[in-house]
Amino acid sequence: MSILDFDRVSYQYPGEDFDIIDQLSFSVEPGSFHCMLGVSGCGKSTIFRMTNGLLQPKAGTIRVGGRPIGEQKHYCGYMPQKDLLFPWRTIGENLALPMEIQGGFSKQEQRERVDAALTDVGLAGCRDKRPTELSGGMRQRAAFARTMLTGSDLLLLDEPFSALDFLTRITMQEWLLDQWQRHRKTILFITHDVEEALFLSSSVLVVESTPIRALREVPVPLDYPRSRHDLTRPEIVDLREGLVELLRKQVKE
Fold this sequence. Notes:
Blueprint: E1 4-11, E2 21-28, E3 33-37, H1 44-51, E4 59-64, E5 67-68, E6 77-79, H2 91-95, H3 97-102, H4 107-120, H5 136-148, E7 154-158, H6 166-183, E8 186-191, H7 194-200, E9 203-206, E10 216-219, H8 234-252
Parallel strand pairs: 3-8, 3-9, 6-7, 7-8
Antiparallel strand pairs: 1-2, 1-4, 4-5, 9-10
Helix pairs in contact: 4-5
């Protein structure tokens, strides 16, 4: 069974005279890692916002685990481009938010789960620090840990590394792959960076045009684990150039 299904889903923004998402159908398998690639403003984030319930589809059905999302709570975790850690809360208090919202966790349980999550992402000892005391990469790790603490098997990551400097970004990409291989959550990851998409995903979901009527799935012929050197393989270089050309055509249209 697919973990995520879009069944003829459409969405139209108020004030627009066209559907930016138009009868879109696609599915995602459990435990997979897909990057969604497309030019700015093409509608990628709209797909995420409908999936996490921030936007309501004009038509169609979105299912997670075979059930319509309107019948569920806490079915996916969402991490936007900015870490959105509350500056007046400690890192530990920020990570406890999903458990506070869900309810049913004692303070001791919250503390234990937060400490375990921080250790898991390499931030042991940071529970009592404020977000301003951490680097950009550390804040993104904390934000990812908070997303993991939703307990959801489906994680939506919307350009989480785009604001980081180059070296921090590639370090975080490698770190994220390690997290995924250990936990095997299902990850959908929005990016504009073709190399990032090829390094991370088992297949790339490409937005070729707006309105979005389909996602073109492009398999990445690399096994896991991966290294940066894999990006220099001739078949990957050719694939990168092909994807860049697809995006350039969309910009010209």
